[in-house]
Amino acid sequence: FAGLPEARTDTAMSELVPEPRPKPAVPMKPVSINSSLLGYIGIDTIIEQMRKKTMKTGFDFNIMVVGQSGLGKSTLVNTLFKSQVSRKASSWNREEKIPKTVEIKAIGHVIEEGGVKMKLTVIDTPGFGDQINNENCWEPIEKYINEQYEKFLKEEVNIARKKRIPDTRVHCCLYFISPTGHSLRPLDLEFMKHLSKVVNIIPVIAKADTMTLEEKSEFKQRVRKELEVNGIEFYPQKEFDEDLEDKTENDKIRQESMPFAVVGSDKEYQVNGKRVLGRKTPWGIIEVENLNHCEFALLRDFVIRTHLQDLKEVTHNIHYETYRAKRLNDNGGLPPCFEAVSGCGSLLPTAARRI
Question: Span of the secretion signal (predicted)?
Fold first, then answer.
């Protein structure tokens, strides 16, 4: 009996002290996703996808040349693209003199390099300033530029529009300045003042080999000053610089390179065992692509290698949008297609029913 009280004591203790309960399960913290766990996704292939797509569709680029007669506008464009793209004709060859332009004429040419195709259109314009009365001589050129905007706009507002609208808009206008060495003519200022509102103007001093280095430098400074005083904006426009890098690069171009003093030639000569494009003079050969001789190489790099895509974007986002907004505003917000019955009248009843 001696163990009996102890047994009762243990039983009493077990009744007083509750058994430890299991702790409730704590939910686990979510594991942070580490990029190393995911492995290779392939985002970097987006650029390659875009490249392949644009390679298939190709590129369009439309360049206009404007200026006084006899400044070598057509020759320079041929030199720029190393091809007979200006006033192309089956019967014309390099040895013959380029015929004089008598009307605004657009000439298309497909250039291929490294698998990339570009449909280049050169818009050649008649030389101005030759007539007795040169008043409003810029109007035909301004009209042509606006007609291309109108053509694009009408295609864009069509109900059944094309998947890829043909782009005939002028992306770049090379304005040729005579190498007088003095100042711009009033006609040049008026011309550029009107054109700069509707197209990207790049001023170019033609036949720069007629000036000494000192004369060329002084003339470039004088032209820049006159353009600034007269409020004429040339490409690249300051307000369209997207970031600090663009601003730094474009400021250097605006302050040092513009206007480009160039020499154009589509004839080749032998210089130090190499074939070069140049102009033969009594005192030697002026090499077109030699920076010590002229700034043609700078112009080519600027137009084609660094700013071609931006020229197209500024044309679409600024000049075309300005024209489009004005047309829609003048037409009470309706597309231009509805302002006349001819050509688009068949769309009117459908549009009216949808409204």
Answer: none
Residue labelled with tokens 């600034």: 228
Q: Is the peptide bond before 166 cis (omega within 30 degrees of 0)?
A: no
Alpha-carbon gap, residue 224 to 26, rounded angstroms:
75
Global pTM? 0.77
- Residues 207/71, Cβ–Cβ less than 8 Å: yes
**Residue in the block written with tokens 């001789």:** 293
Phi, psi of 16 (to 5 degrees): -80, -40
Q: What is the DSSP string of 224-253?
A: HHHHHHTT---SSPGGG--SHHHHHHHHHI
Alpha carbons 102 and 100: distance in angstroms, whole number = 6
Q: Which two tokens stand for residue 48?
A: 């390659």
SS3 173: strand
Query: Is residue 316 within 8 Å of residue 152, measured between CB atoms?
Result: no
Taken in order 70, 147, 317, 61, the sign of the CA dihedral is negative
Q: Is 198 helix (H, G, I), strand (E, B) or coil?
A: coil
Alpha-carbon distance of 192 to 258, in angstroms, equals 15
**How far apart, in Å, are the Cα atoms of 54 and each of 42, 45, 77, 301?**
20, 14, 25, 21
Within 13 Å, how many C-alpha atoms sit on residue 182's CB side?
Answer: 4
Query: Tens digits of per-residue pLDDT, 71-104?
Result: 888 888 888 877 666 554 444 454 555 555 567 8
Taking the C-alpha atoms of residue 71 and residue 62, their distance in angstroms, rounded to an integer, is 20
Q: What is the per-residue pLDDT across 212-246, written as a single tens digit (0 to 9) for each?
A: 889 999 999 999 999 999 999 999 988 888 888 88
CA dist., res. 38 & res. 46, Å (int): 18
Residue 354: which residues within 8 A CB-CB, separation 6 or more?
A: none
